[in-house]
């Protein structure tokens, strides 16, 4: 595989959304068309902001991109593989092996330490504890929590909890990171710090990231932005 930029750009495409549509049944018997048309190509190492007003369908599009929800139409290619016709098991396997998720709320396991929260997903994926621990330590060090490995989530600040959630999302070395308002619960200063850390990590690891955010200052710092407007995904 080619390295660097310029040549073989398509070789760097990790996620493609093609003419994605999504509608939901409504109480009056009609359907709410949330996404009418969304095309998106994500390349290795790029960080793309997904913006749009509340209710515009950002979370819906992220769920579809992460194969947590089936669209009413369109195709999703992961590393060039079409997924629409795959069964649930195959979709789940692709999601587990190739994708990491970060949400607005951290959803860490409260009874386990920061280290264990990053070890456990690797063990679920079939790693031994012995193999999982060094990677968990390294990730937590990289998010600035090397001194907090043994802390439970309840003993960490909001920003620190999100840092653990980011380390956890990257625990299984996914090529794709999908984040839904990852700094939405944090104050301005903490948001900036967590975003900077996330950006460094994504670029260092060569992960492709799609990040929904309300925060236009943060969106501007990403490599590019796309906007959901009236059901269409447009270049911002
Ligand atoms: P955003 O994340 O941009 O705020 P969402 O994707 O959460 O937007 O929601 C977009 C629209 O789709 C909203 O009107 C929401 O009520 C609707 N919606 C989302 N999921 C469902 C669902 N499972 N069933 C019905 N309507 C839904
Ligand atoms: Mg949302």
Could you walk me through the main structural features you see in this protein, from its secondary elements to its overall organization?
With 236 residues, this protein is α/β, with parallel strands linked by helices. It has a domain at 5-106 and 177-235: Rossmann fold (3-Layer(aba) Sandwich). The protein contains seven helices and ten strands. It has helices spanning 58-65, 88-98, 114-124, 129-142, 158-169, 188-205, 216-220, and strands at residues 13-25, 31-43, 47-51, 73-78, 81-82, 99-102, 176-180, 208-212, 224-229, 232-235. The strands form two sheets. A six-stranded mixed sheet has the order 6-7-8-3-9-10. A four-stranded antiparallel sheet has the order 2-1-4-5, with helices on one face. Strand 4 and strand 5 (81-82) form a beta hairpin. Helix 3 runs parallel beside helix 5 (158-169) and helix 5 (158-169) packs parallel to helix 6. The longest helix is centred in the last third of the chain and has 18 residues, at 188-205. The model is unreliable at 1-8 (pLDDT under 50). It binds adenosine-5'-diphosphate and magnesium ion. Adenosine-5'-diphosphate binds at residues 24, 32, 34, 52, 54-60. Keywords: ATP-binding, Cell inner membrane, Cell membrane, Lipoprotein, Membrane, Nucleotide-binding, Transport. Belongs to the ABC transporter superfamily. Macrolide exporter (TC 3.A.1.122) family. One of its GO terms (molecular function) is transmembrane transporter activity. This is Lipoprotein-releasing system ATP-binding protein. Residues 15-236 form the ABC transporter domain.
């Amino acid at each position: 595989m080619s390295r660097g930029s310029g040549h073989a750009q398509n070789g760097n495409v990790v996620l493609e959304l093609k003419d994605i549509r999504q509608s939901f049944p409504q109480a009056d018997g009609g359907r709410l068309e949330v996404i009418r048309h969304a095309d998106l190509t994500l390349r290795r190492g790029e960080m793309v902001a997904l913006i749009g007003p509340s209710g515009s369908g950002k979370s819906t599009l992220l769920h579809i991109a992460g194969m947590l929800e089936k669209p009413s139409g369109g195709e999703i290619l992961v590393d060039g593989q079409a997924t629409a016709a795959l069964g649930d098991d195959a979709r789940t396997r692709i999601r587990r092996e190739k994708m990491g998720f970060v949400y607005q709320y951290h959803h860490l396991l409260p009874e386990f330490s920061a280290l264990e929260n990053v070890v456990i997903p690797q063990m679920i994926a079939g790693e031994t504890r012995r193999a999982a621990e060094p990677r968990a330590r390294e990730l937590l060090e990289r998010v600035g929590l090397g001194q907090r490995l043994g802390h439970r989530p309840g003993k960490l600040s909001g920003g620190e909890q999100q840092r653990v959630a980011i380390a956890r999302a990257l625990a299984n070395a996914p090529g794709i990171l999908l984040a839904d308002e990852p700094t939405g619960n944090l104050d301005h200063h903490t948001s900036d710090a967590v975003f900077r850390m996330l950006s460094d990590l994504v670029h260092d690891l060569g992960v492709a990231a799609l990040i929904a955010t309300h925060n236009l200052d943060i969106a501007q710092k990403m490599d590019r932005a796309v906007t959901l407007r009236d059901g269409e995904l447009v270049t911002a």
